[in-house]
Model the fold of this input.
Amino acid sequence: MSELRITDTNSANDSKGRAFGFEGNDFIPVVVGIVAAIGVFLMLYAVFSAALLMSAVISALFAIVPTAWALMFKRGRPDGYAEDYFDELLNPEGFTYAAGNQPSFPLHHDK
Done:
């Protein structure tokens, strides 16, 4: 007689997956930036005969900027963190009453 084994399982898909240490699709801008950096370096150095150091520095920006974005605003942060961060930075009051921006006498007109 065979016994039925019962095990606890979690059949829900709670994870978006991981690649290169990034959750979900957050690795895609990093990979695209690296590919773009290689392409820019080859164009500057081989096609336009720019200096090696200048080509390397300019092309490195194409890899560094998306990597920094992903590390600062995507990795380990909740969805929408970057949008909320920049919204708070640009409009800290939001849609609330901002006492500092209100005139003390709204009906008084200075001439």
Notes: The first strand starts at residue 18 and ends at 19. The two ends are 99 Å apart (CA to CA).
